[in-house]
Amino acid sequence: MNDSQSPLVVATSPGSSPPSYETGALRLALGLAPGRPFNLGSLLSDRLCQQGHGGRLALVWENHSRLRKDFTFDELRRYSDVWAGKLADLGIVAGDRVCLFLDRVPDLYFAFLGILKLGAVAQPLFSQFMADALEVRLADADTRAVITTADMSRRCVRFVRACRRCHG
Asked: What are the structural domains, with CATH classification, of the chain?
């Protein structure tokens, strides 16, 4: 594996204390200005591409049939931008809650970053939830949108219908 294929890794030594996530230390480690806001979605894709890491491995996905697909940081940036654009076209804005009701497919990660790039709140939902449990979580979160597949959407049909009535 050459350097452009090797993933960026943050690791600690066995037995050592975990890295500190106090904002000052985190900002310093990431090269961010103190006291200035930052967007985690952009930081996890756009900034790494700007720093020349676009061709490096960002995500490895493998399906149940062992089919493997590798994604670079540049692909992660592009696909998450597509999701951010789609959601913005639907009227999603900063602070809106968007639920992700997907299996662990690449679009789960792309959409998650796209949501963060908009400043919206990403709420992953466990794909094994049944309809009643989903509806409770979706209603409690004041959900504005649900990203799912046609197959999985059947479990949240009543909620989606209620959303359409509430949000036009």
From this structure: 39-167 (3.40.50.980)
